[in-house]
Amino acid sequence: MKFSNLKLTTPYLNHKPIFYEKVDPTPLDKPFLISASQSAAKLLGVDEDLALDEELINIVNGKTKLEGSETFAMCYAGHQFGQFAGRLGDGRAINLGKINGQNLQLKGSGLTLYSRHGDGRAVLRSSIREYLASEAMHGLGIETTRALALIGSDTDVSREKWEKGAIVLRLSPTWVRFGTFEYLNAYGEHDKLQELADYVIDESFPYLKGSEDIYLKMYAEIVKNTATTIAKWQSVGFNHGVMNTDNMCIDGRTIDYGPFAFLDDYDPNFVCNQTDTQGLYSFSGQVGSAHWNLDMLARTLSPIIDYTLSEEVLDDTFRSTYENVYSEIMYEKMGLQTKQDNDKELYLGMLRALGNATIDYTEFFRKLSRFNTNKSDILDICVNREPLDKWLDRYSERIEKEALSVAERHEKMLAVNPKYILKNHILQEAIKKAGEHDFSMVNELLKVALAPYDEHSELEHLCKPTPMKSKNIKLSCSS
Ligand code: AMP
Ligand code: MG
């Protein structure tokens, strides 16, 4: 199947217009293809080479419509940094329709009813970040929206300085956000809450259909999925940066990549978003923020689900799911196959030691995946050697109790501890080159993003240690 021969449907348009605005994209000038993800295209049943599809650029640019496509922007509200922000909506995203359980959406495709003071555009640098991060998150096995293609253009876009506009074609099984429900609740459209819940069940949780207390069960699934995604973020060192309720996907997947960062040195208090002066969405704060957002959702859904019952679900499910998923991943990352009494203390001790050592989080685990008895390989990359020196002694004793051979353990650990992580300093290099019309690094990064555990010996430069001056970069929301 060829991408441009896809036939879309638009089930979201069966709702009343309060849910959306029908709007046409505004194409960019002189568009050109920067990158396309064949891996994402597979989700749509596309097996022909995207790069050879002569209509791809026009479709991503919103100039040509796929058969059946009717374009629209979705309406939502949201709590931003703890405050209700009123109506937001897709201010620069336009939906094309659905196929194979995936909703296609253009980001950066022009003004909509919800653009407020914005220009409906996305600049090249943030589009490269969103495109690569989506595919990298998928490569790491974390639920996320995907990115099928990225185009650049000659259109000028005003930010702190003049930049060029770009569009990412994104895919997701759902674009409903916590904030979509918040909009309907805040504007007194309580009957529409149920209509949206039915849509969400149909789209994201069809296996619940016909069960009792279906809305409460839907909420429980949202809690479980969200807790699982956050646990996975914590395990790879991902800091989202803008966990407002309009950036919380209803099925729990990662959505809306802005000033995100993958940790350089392990620092639980790291805040990647420059505008987050209070540190509300710090790396370790993500767990509490997700819980708060889920509580907001429970309150929003209270006209259709008894709030005391959803609170019970939240209390019973969130922490336990988070801790189970997180600890299982940490045991795997440490190469532990069996369970022993003090294993939880072992990984908590490891996190404390990492916090005190000043050490790159990703590099530590990759080196631990080859650890036998020689500690210096790991200690040589710490600023402060002592905490990990002691911890590695405990770790050595513990892995003695495992049945696997050293080689088998190393192989298993290398398959769960990524070599390639999309760090900000690497992304900045790729963005700089892209500004000079050299997109080779974007495409190299796509390759390692989709297979981050493999060696890719020809692409070693993409995992070089972060230079001191580029460590722990914070970015603004400007995008
Ligand atoms: P974000 O922080 O990117 O998730 O955006 C928050 C809200 O602002 C969403 O409703 C976006 O659609 C909207 N928005 C962000 N940037 C723009 C822009 N350049 N033009 C129009 N709307 C925007
Ligand atoms: Mg957003």
UniProtKB/TrEMBL annotation:
Catalytic residues (positions): 246
Q: Which residues bind ATP?
A: 89, 91-92, 107, 119-120, 170, 177, 256
Say which domain of life the source belongs to.
Bacteria
Q: What is its EC number?
A: 2.7.7.-, 2.7.7.108
Q: Which cofactor does it need?
A: Mg(2+); Mn(2+)
GO MF term set: AMPylase activity; ATP binding; magnesium ion binding; manganese ion binding
Q: Which reaction does it catalyse?
A: L-threonyl-[protein] + ATP = 3-O-(5'-adenylyl)-L-threonyl-[protein] + diphosphate; L-seryl-[protein] + UTP = O-(5'-uridylyl)-L-seryl-[protein] + diphosphate; L-tyrosyl-[protein] + ATP = O-(5'-adenylyl)-L-tyrosyl-[protein] + diphosphate; L-tyrosyl-[protein] + UTP = O-(5'-uridylyl)-L-tyrosyl-[protein] + diphosphate
Is Magnesium included in the keywords of this UniProt record? yes
Class of the enzyme per the UniProt entry, highest EC level: transferase
Q: Does the keyword Magnesium apply?
A: yes
Identify the keywords attached in UniProt to this record, alphabetized: ATP-binding, Magnesium, Manganese, Metal-binding, Nucleotide-binding, Nucleotidyltransferase, Transferase
Q: What does this protein do?
A: Nucleotidyltransferase involved in the post-translational modification of proteins. It can catalyze the addition of adenosine monophosphate (AMP) or uridine monophosphate (UMP) to a protein, resulting in modifications known as AMPylation and UMPylation.
Family in the record = Belongs to the SELO family.
Q: What is the official name of this protein in its record?
A: Protein nucleotidyltransferase YdiU
Please name the source species.
Candidatus Sulfurimonas marisnigri
Source taxonomy = Bacteria, Pseudomonadati, Campylobacterota, Epsilonproteobacteria, Campylobacterales
